[in-house]
Amino acid sequence: MTGRPEVLFPLFGALTTLDGVGPKTAQILEQAGVEKPRDVLMTLPHSGVDRHRRASIRDVVLPATATVEVTVGAHYPPKSRGRPYRVDVTDAQTSFQLVFFHAKGDYLQRLLPTGQKRIVSGKVEIFDSIAQIVHPDHVLPIAEADEIPTYEPVYPLHAGVSQKLMWKATRSALQMAPELAEWIDPELRKREAWPAWHAAFEKVHAPGSSTDLSPHDPARQRLAYDELFAHQITLALARAVVRRGKGLPSHGDGALRDKVLAGLPYAPTGAQTRAITEIAADLATPLRMNRLLQGDVGSGKTLVALMGLLCVVEAGGQGVMMAPTEILARQHLEGLQPLAADAGVRLEILTGRDKGSERAAKLAALATGEINVLVGTHAVFQKDVHFHDLRLAVIDEQHRFGVAQRMELGAKGQAVDVLVMTATPIPRSLALAQYGDMDVSVLDEKPPGRTPVQTALVSTARLDEVVEKLRHAVAEGRQAYWVCPLVEESEVVDMTAAEERFKQLRAALGEGLVGLVHGQMPPAEKDAAMARFVAGDTKVLVATTVIEVGVNVPNASIMMIERAESFGLAQLHQLRGRVGRGAIASTCLLLYQAPLSENGRRRLEILRETEDGFRISEEDLAMRGAGDVIGTAQSGLPRFRIADLECQTALMALAQSDARKLLHDDPTLETARGQAARTLLWLMEQDKAIRLISVG
């Protein structure tokens, strides 16, 4: 496919091609991420100022913006330096003053000649019982009054860029914007009553009232949809390319899976059975699987993953299960080992710890196919690791794993099927934004045998009582986590450091009973401290959030979270999921520092009310916004300029189904609508997608 369509060239030119934008302003805008006319066009006003003409400033309730016709009266230059320059003016009903600081008298004489009529617009305030406008926004001769918009859009600003300048620049960008062929499905556009692309921009940059600024305004919805649609076409193309990579159909006979199911103490949940069936169906096709298994803490993802792995082993292939850390890899091994043994399958682990002859023996067994399933960390990516016939890779905790690494893994086998597991329930709109290239299976039921966790809120003022209760619990043989917010005492944040808390608890509970794990420790020390807790040697583990993912200690039945108000909802939910894994009734104590903010209280109360991770994640999104829920830095969440994932959730799902349908009907985007969609991809800078089409 050739380069960017010529019709878009002006929008991708220099900022200085816009009215009023000189090299200096261009530099300020570029620092704020506005680099070309297209970005100016896509910077929408966030509010507006009503500037329609009034007969008198008496027609508004002060302080407020007013636009009135006045007759200019006397000028009062300042008596001494630093004093303001004042000009008397009279409208149809009353007189007031215009006030200027640091203004040159001759300039003001020309701007406001005594005895002449002018239109002035600005914020009217009462000062010393006199109405005044300090530095009016507009002062114009009557003939030019039309230059003041009746409702003036207000743009998000950066120091050194005025509203006037943004107004000029956006008008100029609008003139550059071409008319483009329509890429939205005509039925959809008719149903939603969306304007055409160019008309939509004209409308959003010239709002008539505050309702035009809402994310539900049809013009704004249309432009948000364009952005989401381009993003989803990119993901759908990526999905098509992955699926085109011929996979190997793996038809298992079910023998190994039946053995495992027969050995289970209880039947899988409906959700587990559904996911297992979906995965087996994917594996049986010659298309490559790219599936996300999304399940709340303790919904039984491990069993589902194992069933997928056994499916490929039955078909004569190998599987690999990847975890982000050594601790988690060992845990997967412990969880899977007894089940694999039931099926008579050889399961091994490979991490950075394996050295010398032991490592060489494992690699040899892997290359000949004696090892059926390998559990490992990223050490599996090393050059000397060769599989006999790798068919399925199960990746735990996607957030720590980029798309690039998924590709790398694909290169290890013919065309490896990929199953990604995440224990972070993500609201649907975000799941689509982040994983739109994948098919999704959701585990939304809890398997039997897990006890609900009692959640309580306690003020840090009652810390001594809490420690006393903990002492009794430990004496009864129970184990507990104590999560601290931060390591290293900092003056700014009065969070108790993990080290301090560790010393205090050790003094209260006894020398050898308390362990410590935090992010600054060397990995070997961390593993050793975890191992002592898992073995039950230490009864209380003081930790920073390093334990939020995947650690499994069934005997641990108490979770203390200190300064709980400083954590996000999703994080608190993950931490709470570390207890309630055994048969003992478990408790989670949220220790907060009073007074709680409105938001902080609401967060903690939601946790007290529900254990449903999906409901918690929806609430989290409503309260914090998309970037925070996934942690924008490593989220792979696209940065949208117009679309708002919190308010426009439904648009994302619409964009996904529409993008998939478009590519199903027109895989190479050759039809008229396909060509229009290509223009949209260039416009939205989805160059990745464009390369994917040319691969096709």
Give the structure's gist in a few sentences.
The chain is α/β, with parallel strands linked by helices and 696 residues long. The chain is built from 25 helices and 22 strands.
The N- and C-terminal alpha carbons lie at a distance of 10 Å
The total count of strands amounts to 22
**What is the radius of gyration?**
32 Å
Q: Classify the helix fraction into a percent range.
A: 25-40%
How would a textbook summarize the main sheet?
7 strands, parallel
Kindly report the average pLDDT value.
85
Work out the strand percent. 15-25%
What are the segments in which pLDDT stays under 50 over at least 5 consecutive residues?
A: 491-495, 626-636
Structural class: alpha/beta
Overall shape: it is globular
Instruction: State the helix count.
Output: 25
Instruction: List the strand order in the largest sheet.
Output: 12-13-11-14-15-10-16
Write up what this structure looks like.
The protein has 696 residues and is an alpha/beta fold. The chain is built from 25 helices and 22 strands. α17 links the parallel β19 and β20. The longest helix is centred in the N-terminal third of the chain and has 27 residues. The radius of gyration is 32 Å and the shape is globular. About 2% of the residues have low confidence.
